[in-house]
Amino acid sequence: MEVVNAIGRRKAAVARVYVKDGSGKITINNREFEDYFPSSILQYVVKQPLTTLGVEANYDITINLDGGGFKGQAEAARLGIARAMVIIDPENKPALKAEGFMTRDSRVVERKKPGQPKARKKFQFSKR
């Protein structure tokens, strides 16, 4: 199998995912997976599509992550991996879609408005 690539996004994070046959090694920005995401919760989030399909040890995955925070990056990587698994085998799509891994979470931070301290917060109103 040649290398399959897919893109995942979440908030400001972008994950370019490259999947090829291998032994289950995940590399993120040329670092070990466990070094990049020391939190076991985020490691679990990234591996969710593979665990759902039961193919954790079948593919080597290289991910280039850019932008955002660690939570957004982990969820972007999850979407990228899920999309790559569907490209490899379209029959994987219903199982991943049922778990919600094929949906791009479009929620992003609302912009700050002029004359206000934040997006929705207002300065205290003074009648006099």
Tally of extended strands? 5
Radius of gyration: 18 Å
How many distinct domains? 1
In the CATH hierarchy, the third-tier topology is known as Ribosomal Protein S5, domain 2
What would you note in describing this structure?
This protein has a single domain (4-99), classed as Ribosomal Protein S5, domain 2 (2-Layer Sandwich), CATH 3.30.230. The protein contains four helices and five strands, in the order ββββααβαα. The chain has helices spanning 33-36, 40-53, 70-88, 93-99, and strands spanning 4-10, 13-21, 26-28, 31-32, 59-66. The protein has a five-stranded mixed beta sheet with strand order 1-2-5-3-4. The chain starts with a strand and ends in a 29-residue tail after the last helix.
What's a quick, concise take on this entry?
By secondary structure, this protein is an alpha+beta fold. The protein is built from four helices and five strands, in the order ββββααβαα.
Structural features:
single chain, 128 residues, alpha+beta, Ribosomal Protein S5, domain 2, five-stranded mixed β-sheet, elongated
Helix and strand layout, with pairings?
Blueprint: E1 4-10, E2 13-21, E3 26-28, E4 31-32, H1 33-36, H2 40-53, E5 59-66, H3 70-88, H4 93-99
Parallel strand pairs: 3-5
Antiparallel strand pairs: 1-2, 2-5, 3-4
Helix pairs in contact: 2-3
